[in-house]
């Protein structure tokens, strides 16, 4: 039985990982060996872009935002209701 409904391409947009969508519709990241880096428990995972530097914006199923690094580790936990609050927290980390 399939684990994923969709497996994306390995691109720089997601670091060295591919975006996956499970059967329930949640997103995660896997490496080239198929190992799960970020469990598919996210409502959305953004790309690693210039906006957040080496981090990606994630949205959990409760609608809260946070950031992960390129190793899939939480940098800012998904506790913020607004993306802009995450940006403020990131700026505090840089200071």
Write out key terms for the chains shown.
1 helix, globular, Thrombin, subunit H, 95 residues, 41% strand, mainly beta, 7 strands
Characterize the structure shown.
The chain has one helix spanning 83-94, and strands at residues 4-7, 18-22, 27-30, 36-45, 56-60, 65-68, 74-80. With 95 residues, it is mostly beta strands. Strands 1-2-3-4-5-6-7 form a seven-stranded antiparallel sheet, covered by helices on one side. The chain is globular. The model has no long low-confidence stretch (mean pLDDT 89).
Annotate the secondary structure layout:
Layout: E1 4-7, E2 18-22, E3 27-30, E4 36-45, E5 56-60, E6 65-68, E7 74-80, H1 83-94
Antiparallel strand pairs: 1-2, 2-3, 3-4, 4-5, 5-6, 6-7
Gross geometry: globular
Overall mean pLDDT stands at 89
> Could you list the spans in which at least 5 consecutive residues all have pLDDT below 50?
none
What is the domain total for the residues?
Answer: 1
Summarize the entry for a quick read.
Helix content is 13%, strand content 41%. It has 95 residues and is mainly beta.
